[in-house]
Every structure is written in structure tokens, then in C-alpha cells.
Design a protein that fits this description.
Elements: H1 2-14, E1 22-27, E2 30-31, E3 50-51, H2 53-69, E4 72-77
Parallel strand pairs: 1-4, 2-3
Amino acid sequence: MMNTALRLRTLLDVYDLRDKPIWNTEMGYRFARADLGIQPQKPKGRWQDVLSHQQGAAYVARSLILSAGSGIQRVYWFNWDGEPPHPTMGLAESAGHKP
């Protein structure tokens, strides 16, 4: 993430756009969903990993901290309520009613 932000900042400098904000408009991780019978897996470092709620909370916190430290001004979570087509990427279960 930090390398990507640095490369993007360098590109903005080349085109004299250094004052433009950088936003991450879609990010997310896959979480275990007891309501769907989806269990966490041992992470392998891939986007397909299904994280426990504890691991997921740590990943989200780390992502937000690294984003802020990299100068990314806004970060938006993909698929808040975890409904199809990506039921494991939501931060909430049961149609967004249970965190």
C-alpha cells in the first residue's frame, strides 16, 4: 500500500498535481460469517483469505493507519453489509444489522 501511494504521489508531482487528494475508493478483506457457515482459514497472504473477526479487526486498523501515514485522505470500505456478490467482505452480518 505504501509503495503504491508513493508511486502515485510521484506521478501526481510529474503532472504538477501534487495538491490533489488521494482516495482509496474500494478496499476490503474477507471475514468469517457464522450466519452463512463460513469459517476463518489460516491466512496465506492472499486476498482470498477468510479472516477471523480478531484478525479482520487488526487488518482493518492496520490498513487505516497505513493509509493515513501514506497521505491517503479517504478510505472507503467495499460492500459494507456483506450481501451478495461478496458475502464475506462485509463488516456487518444479517443484512447490516449485526456488526
